[in-house]
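lytic cellulose monooxygenase (C4-dehydrogenating), pasting as requested.
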Amino acid sequence: MSPFNSIHLLAALVSSAAVPFVSAHSFVTNINIEGRSYQGFRPMPGSQNPALLTAWSTTASDQGYVNQTSYQGPDIICHRGAANGHGHAPVKAGGQIHVQWNGWPQNHRGPVLDYLADCGKSGCETVDKTQLQFFKISQAGLVKPASKQRDYSGEPSFGSWASDQLIANNNSWVVEIPPRIKPGFYVLRTEIIALHNATYSDGAQNYPQCFNIEIQGSGDEVPAGTPGESLYKASDPGVQLNITTGVQNYPIPGPTLISDAVTASLNHPVPTASGTPITVEELVRKTPAPRDGGIAMATGAAVANNAKRHPRHMDRRWYHQGQGY
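Structure tokens follow.
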């Protein structure tokens, strides 16, 4: 083979090998609560992350996933090597949290799931993640069953999945906090499970992302939960299946929904200000007097300011035109 052809063959092999690596990765860039945007953790090498984030950090610098081999380990809880966020974002019981992903590949079809775990009075900044008890507050899986089996050309029919809705909503999701949840500090665990390789015993791809929130309200419910390392089993029918064969029914994995679970209507609100995370230490101090510029007066409220935001360092491969938060 000539050197010219060898070079082009090598380039083609490298390019084709790189496609799955590139297309499989994403993370939550920010959450938006009542118009205030709270930055997510940027996992890419060289990213600048503020010391005070509501998001949990991870070591998933490839923006990758967790599969069945880690279901009974700590990485499934809030992603690989996850460490506590050092602040909380306030949200009212019954309020909504808009979760913005850094794009999502269309062929990575699967469910979207949302959980809460009570951190106790000390907050989520130092809680042991393996001790958290998660209860499911939202889930969506197969939205519309496949219309047919594979046709004569071998073309699969996938139906419509929650991930398709997320993509159509500018790669974003909306989580509604149940109205009767007791006020306090919680970890929000939001997750997409990609099923395109789920025919294999280790082929499901879980993308868990965690944020610390402070729920405000007058509720009194803290539902029983499940440890993160017990949410899923590798043998669950919802994580090992072939979605190319005309799926008609899909058993969403994980615990059952709590009785007060609410399915939020998808929308894409545009944040109007940066939100400043609040620490538990700050919550015990006296609320400062109001100043010009819009400091919210509720305990633990986010600060609306005009300070320059931290660079997003967005992975432009998956940047979606519009509000790319």
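Note for the archive: The helical segments are 3-23, 75-78, 162-168, 280-283.
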